Amino acid sequence: METTAPEGCPHGEEQTRTRNTSCMNAIDSTPGSSALSGTALVNFIAGIAATGGLLFGYDTGIISAALLQITREFSLGTMGQQIVTSAIIAGAFVGCISAAPLSDWKGRRRMIILAAAIFLTGTAIAALAHSVVVLTLARFILGLAVGASSQIVPIYIAEVAPSSRRGRLVVLFQLAVVSGVFISFIAGYLLRNHSWRVMFGLGAVPALFLLFGMVFLPNSPRWVAMKGDIHGAREILRKVRSTRQAAERELAEIIDAHDVQAPWSELRKPWVRPALIASVGVGLLCQLTGINAVLYYAPTIFAGVGFGENSALLTSVAIGVAMIIATVFGSWAVDVIGRRKLMLCMIPGAGISLALLAGILTLNSNPSGAAGWVMIAAVVGYAIFNVGSLSVAVWLVGAEVYPLSCRGKGMSLVAASHWGADLVISLTTLSFVEAMGAAGAFWLFAAINIAAFFFVLRYVPETRGRSLEEIEASLRNGTFAP
Known about the structure:
Layout: H1 17-27, H2 35-49, H3 51-61, H4 63-74, H5 78-106, H6 108-128, H7 132-160, H8 166-190, H9 196-201, H10 204-214, H11 221-226, H12 230-240, H13 244-257, H14 273-288, H15 291-304, H16 309-336, H17 339-363, H18 370-401, H19 407-459, H20 468-476
Helix pairs in contact: 1-13, 2-7, 2-8, 3-7, 3-8, 3-10, 4-5, 4-8, 4-15, 5-6, 5-7, 5-19, 6-7, 6-10, 7-8, 7-18, 7-19, 8-16, 8-18, 12-13, 14-18, 14-19, 15-16, 15-19, 16-18, 17-18, 17-19, 18-19
């Protein structure tokens, strides 16, 4: 990266960290902008960008209710249901990998705008589909946008946000995701007597909001600096920080890191490997612990064990409420309690909830009365503990732990591991339930939750309150791992 002295400091052929530090001390006496303007702008940026998460959640969650109608209309068997459901996941896998080089080349902001346009295209095709093939293609297109959003939006927010508030602002993306899922459950229940096409078509509203909203937002200051435009990075930082001093101090940290865009091979280097293990592991476990199996197939599974269709859809609404509550709590806790501690406290609760659920189904494959209510409580408890830990942390950890030079590519691997695991889960859940019973599926997910606890304990460090440049320094000096 080309290094340029902060404004007001002497320029020269060689610029050292000592020079940067002395310049920052001189600049600290410069009056800055009001705290309100910087904070408000960052909140506004994060809120608009997080609409990508709302689309992510709505388009992946709406299939839960729509699948009941689609199955009847197109006479789908188990494999057909799984293919229609998982097409969006296959698209997300392709989308997150493709977005990495594009976001490094054209910038995070431009790629979010492109993702919004793809959301609109996929929504229109899905709403008008008159065959399973066209519907599957539409959901694959939607998946491209979902995957791109999951890779780009958390990075964009993390690179704009100050370190003291980065956790809750990045988790705003996950809050938008679960809000989108919840809205999809509400829409599915309210529109249960209407066409599934209307359910899909409603996704156009947030897509338009994201498309037009992103046009007015700035680029990521770190991406701009990585491209060599130090002056442009300074101007953006001055707008999104509470004081000019804070902006210049952060710019000096970015300059001192001397990051330039690195090839994919950078991720294979030993010093980057701890970040790769921690982030990809959380990305995999977020799915392998079973959360999307519950989201996608809860109505189908509950209807299959004796609940009526309307009751099954209402159970999904309860799960959606639980997810929002858990994410709101998690968005506070990641910056107060910490990312690592939050996961270690809550993951065991998810395992216990699933074990309780599996135990009930083992004793009675068609529970009713009190056992039925305990089963619903166990599912809701699982949603709270899992979403409030792994689902809250997955995009945050991935956006934080990589060096700037390969952050986009590293985050794409996190997203790819997340969507790859999700694809496996969505393609096999109903088949596994048919072969082994719902109890067997939930026993397996309970065991994976316990394994997730020990993974976090061993490999995931605490990043609360640390700047992105400090986290990168810990990778370089070997102090990253817990």
